[in-house]
């Protein structure tokens, strides 16, 4: 209605631009998870499987681009190992639902399990591996 009444646009052009094009872009973003994220990206949790973590897909789908993590820990409700829920609106929604009592029995792996998987099976690209342990000074 805004394009028609405020910008003097036609109903046909308004419907095509506001409904159909948006729908097509949304579908392609969702489908990119199973195409782009199975072809390109890093494999910090398991280098032996095809799914990858892809920042572009994560940006376009607002949090669903960590596909290597998702395939390694399919039972984790978060679908990504993010302590700050960076761009992961699905996890934020589930967390809010849990606080309201609408979601329960949320499962996620322990930090120790994630670390052991990264060290055993990962491709070495996880940020945790770039952290240099500091020696205690006397």
TrEMBL record:
Q: Per UniProt, which keywords does this protein have?
A: Fatty acid biosynthesis, Fatty acid metabolism, Iron, Lipid biosynthesis, Lipid metabolism, Membrane, Metal-binding, Oxidoreductase, Transmembrane, Transmembrane helix
**Does Iron show up as a keyword for this record?**
yes
Q: PROSITE patterns annotated for this entry?
A: FATTY_ACID_DESATUR_1 (PS00476)
Lineage: superkingdom: Eukaryota
Q: What are the subcellular locations of this protein?
A: Membrane
- What cofactors are annotated for this protein? Fe(2+)
Alphabetically, which GO biological process terms does the record hold? unsaturated fatty acid biosynthetic process
Which Gene Ontology molecular-function terms are recorded? iron ion binding; stearoyl-CoA 9-desaturase activity
> How does the record say this protein sits in the membrane?
Multi-pass membrane protein
Q: List the InterPro entries.
A: Acyl-CoA_DS, FADS-1_CS
Annotated membrane-spanning segments are 20-40
What does the entry list under GO cellular component? endoplasmic reticulum membrane
Q: Give start-end ranges for the coiled-coil region(s).
A: none
Chief place of localization:
membrane
Q: What is known of its domains?
A: The histidine box domains are involved in binding the catalytic metal ions.
The entry assigns this protein to a family as follows:
Belongs to the fatty acid desaturase type 1 family.
What is the name of this protein? Acyl-delta desaturase
Q: Which organism is it from?
A: Lasius niger (Black garden ant)
């Amino acid at each position: 209605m805004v394009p028609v009444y405020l910008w003097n646009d036609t109903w046909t052009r308004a419907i095509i631009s506001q409904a159909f094009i948006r729908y097509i872009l949304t579908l392609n973003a969702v489908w990119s998870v199973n195409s782009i994220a199975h072809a390109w990206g890093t494999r910090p949790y398991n280098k032996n499987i095809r799914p990858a973590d892809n920042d572009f897909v994560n940006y376009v789908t607002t949090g669903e681009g960590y596909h290597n993590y998702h395939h390694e820990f399919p039972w984790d409700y978060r679908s990504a190992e993010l302590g700050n829920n960076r761009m992961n609106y699905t996890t934020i929604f589930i967390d809010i639902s849990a606080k309201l009592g609408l979601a329960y029995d949320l499962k996620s792996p322990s930090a120790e399990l994630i670390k052991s998987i990264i060290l055993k099976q990962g491709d070495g690209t996880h940020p945790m591996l770039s952290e240099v342990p500091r020696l205690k000074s006397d």
